[in-house]
Design goal:
Elements lengths: L1 H9 L1 H20 L1 H57 L1 E5 L2 E4 L7 E11 L8 E3 L12 E3 L4 E8 L4 E5 L7 E5 L5 E5 L7 E5 L12 E4 L11 E9 L8 E6 L8 E7 L2 H13 L1
Antiparallel strand pairs: 1-2, 3-4, 3-14, 4-7, 5-6, 5-14, 6-7, 8-9, 8-11, 9-10, 10-13, 11-12, 12-13
Helix pairs in contact: 2-3
Length: about 280
């Protein structure tokens, strides 16, 4: 209490000055029409600015929720689209009076929407954490994609979360092919720039062009055929080389990645069990 009294005494002149200033401004505003209009205009301007800031903050958080809902709805629509496309492609007439649907087993898959809650791009071994896990049907070795293209492969899963090895991690190699020629090779990240990776095992007789599109080959059970991977940024070959050195600009920008889809290949276990049985014989 003593300290408070000493403080008030020490700065009494300042407090008196501020008090008188407030009184003088109030008198001027009340008794002078021009000053009153200027004051009201200024206060309205400040209030409107504060209101705009408040709305921006509220809309920002609402936008995040809207994006999450949009991702879920988009995934549901994509699942329906895949189902309809498979039915149209596999539509066959057994007899003039009957129609039979037979979906190719490698095309029987569904998408599970997930949100990226952690993603590294500046490390040699990068990883992505998703907010979905075993409770949502996610399992190890499932492929992960975004609306732009291939993201990576699920490595480990807990009840509510999962960790993905992205294609910007040299621990995985993605089988992909040229959209226009079907020649396939392995995409492997060199540990440098998260925007680029290298395409290997493309023989010198293959015709290439800058900008050629790469898509998944469908030769593995992780990704169905036709998902965008990237485009040729540059390629080189020496006279003595048997294979090209190809630089690929990835379709996905991992620095802005926020929502993904996990691929649930419905016949995965059956295919793996059969392949394992064949290897043992």
């Amino acid at each position: 209490m003593k300290n408070l009294i000493n403080f008030l005494i020490q700065y009494s002149v300042v407090f008196l000055f501020l008090f008188l200033e407030v009184i003088s401004v109030t008198l001027i505003v009340k008794n002078q029409d021009y000053q009153k209009s200027v004051f009201l205009s200024s206060s309205n301007s400040v209030a409107s600015t504060m209101f705009e800031w408040s709305n921006s903050v509220v809309e920002f958080f609402k936008l995040r929720t809207a994006n999450d809902n949009l991702s879920e709805e988009n995934t549901a629509l994509k699942n329906q689209l895949v189902k309809l496309q498979n039915q149209l492609v596999s539509l066959k007439k057994e007899t003039p009076d009957s129609i039979h649907f037979r979906i190719p087993p490698e095309m029987e898959y569904q998408f599970i929407a997930a949100k990226v809650i952690k993603c590294t791009t500046n490390k040699t071994l990068n990883y992505i954490t998703l907010n979905k896990g075993a409770l949502d049907g996610i399992k190890p070795d499932m492929g992960v994609v975004s609306d732009e293209g291939v993201v990576g492969i699920v490595k480990t899963v807990s009840t509510k979360f999962s960790v993905v090895i992205p294609i910007i991690n040299p621990k995985i190699e993605i089988s992909c092919k040229f959209k226009r020629s079907n020649y396939s090779g392995g995409l492997l990240w060199n540990g440098e720039d998260s925007r680029y990776a290298n395409l290997n095992d493309i023989a010198r007789h293959v015709e290439l062009a800058l900008g050629d599109t790469l898509i998944t080959s469908g030769l593995t059970s992780t990704f169905p055929e036709g998902i965008p991977v990237g485009n040729i940024e540059d390629f080189k070959i020496k006279t003595s080389d048997a294979y090209y050195k190809i630089k690929v600009k990835l379709a996905v920008d991992f620095r802005t990645l926020s929502h993904v889809k996990v691929i649930n290949y419905l016949n995965y276990q059956e295919q793996k069990d059969l392949e394992k049985k064949s290897e043992e014989q």
